Every structure is written in structure tokens, then in C-alpha cells.
Amino acid sequence: MGIGGISIWQLLIVLVIVILLFGTKKLRNIGTDLGGAIKTFKKSMKDDGDDEEQKQIEDEISAANDIKSTGAEKVETEKKT
Fold first, then answer.
1. 46-61, pLDDT tens digit by residue?
2. How far is CA 65 from the centre of its chain?
3. DSSP code of 6?
4. Residue 2 — φ and ψ, nearest 5°?
5. Distance, CA of 40 to CA of 25 (rounded, Å)
6. What is the distance between the alpha carbons of residues 61 and 80, in angstroms, rounded to a whole number?
């Protein structure tokens, strides 16, 4: 007896039929797509908890860029005079 009353031979027959129906290339593409979907799902679940941190980091970067642009404007004004 195998898994849930299914023997190993029955599982092999089902596997052969699935390979004949879909082909190995199609099965590989399905596996790749499924893996990518799971990876994206895990990443989005992880990112949901990090939204506040991400917003804070973006605000700090924006503030730093504002400071840099203000400093650049002062330098340009000084060069003109």
C-alpha cells in the first residue's frame, strides 16, 4: 500500500499519462510559473508588514534629495553672482 491506498505502480501510471498528455516542456513551464507565483506571494506577504518602514525610508530619501537640490541651487546662485 502506498499513499492513501494508492500503490506506487498506480502513481507511475498516472505520471506517465500526465507526461504523455502535456509533455515535459509544458510541465516544466507550469512548474516554473507555479514557483514564481509562490515566490511573489511570499514576497508580498513579507512586504505587507514592512509598509510603514518602506514609507519612512522613502520619506528620508525624499528629504535628503530636497536638501541636496537646495544646496545645488545655492551653489548655482553663488556662481552667477
1. 776 666 666 777 778 8
2. 28
3. B
4. -105, -140
5. 22
6. 29
pTM passes above 0.85: no
Each residue of 6-23: b (16+ CB within 10 Å) or e?
eeeeeeeeeeeeeeeeee
Name the phi and psi angles at 3, rounded to 5: -75, 120
**φ and ψ of 6, to 5 deg:** -100, 130
Residue in the block written with cell 500526465: 18
Cell matching residue 1:
500500500
- Print pLDDT tens along the chain (81 aa): 556 788 899 999 999 998 899 898 888 888 899 899 999 988 888 776 666 666 777 778 877 777 766 654 554 555 555
* Sequence-ordered list of residues with C-beta below 8 angstroms from that of 8, at least 6 positions apart, any chain: 2
For residue 3, the number of C-alpha atoms closer than 13 Å in the C-beta half-sphere is: 5
